[in-house]
Amino acid sequence: MRYTIPFENVALGASGTYKTLANVISDDTAGHRFKLIRLAVGPSNATPPDLDGNFQVKRIPNTTGGTTGTAGTSISAANIPKKDTQSIDALFSAGTGYSAEPTAYETNPIHQFGVNAHGAYIKDWEADGEDPPKFHQNQSCGLLGTSRGAAFNVSGELEVELF
Q1: 25-84: per-residue pLDDT in tens?
Q2: What's the N-to-C CA distance of the chain in angstroms?
Q3: pLDDT at 124 over 90
Q4: Fewest CB atoms less than 10 Å from the CB: which of 43, 46, 158, 161?
Q5: pLDDT of residue 8
Q6: What is the pLDDT of residue 160?
Q7: What's the domain count of the chain?
Q8: Which residues of the chain form beta strands (DSSP E)?
């Protein structure tokens, strides 16, 4: 069962300061786990400025060990968009556009990349023949971004699958 967590028109952090754009949070229930299948991120406006941004996918290994932050938009499990409308509700929640950052991200990113505001980035682990990052019960998967100069807004999505 696959689900998509969209985020729209979210401001990147100021130069060098990462901000959580989207976060998928697995609850503390045995057997609740997911893998990050695909991510996509690009500029929000039709004529973006010529700016660059850096992005990271990071894990919170124990969501009860630190704050999960304050999402600008919280998405309950029942409201996370399903790829197959007949499948069960998600076994996790999500948030986008954080106003207060989670405090317990691991130091090293799982994946990192840079994007110019005139382009977009898509990472599909399965299409690339790679094993997707996995997140277990009571863990979180965050997509963070920072500008490399003046801030700009981005939109995109995280696609996750229960396993």
Answers
A1: 888 888 889 999 999 999 887 656 778 899 999 998 877 666 667 888 888 888 888 888
A2: 8
A3: yes
A4: 46
A5: 92
A6: 94
A7: 1
A8: 2-11, 19-26, 34-43, 52-60, 73-75, 92-96, 111-116, 121-124, 134-135, 140-147, 153-162
Residue length, the chain?
163
User: Burial level of 23, CB count in 10 A (0-12/13-18/19+)?
Assistant: buried
- Quote the CA–CA distance of 79 and 65 in Å, as a whole number: 26
Region for residue 110 given its phi and psi (left: phi exceeds 0; alpha: psi -120 to 50; beta: otherwise): alpha
Task: Write out the residue range of the structural domain in which residue 92 sits.
Answer: 2-162
Q: How far is CA 95 from CA 3, 23, 45, 51, 115, in A?
A: 14, 5, 22, 26, 22
Q: Are 5 and 75 in contact (CB under 8 A)?
A: yes
Strand partners, 153: 11
Burial class from Cβ neighbours inside 10 Å (0-12, 13-18, 19+) for residue 158 reads: buried
The structure tokens listed for 113 are 């990349």
CA separation for the pair 6, 65 (Å, rounded):
26
User: Across residues 82-96, what is the average pLDDT?
Assistant: 85
pLDDT (0 to 100) of residue 155: 93
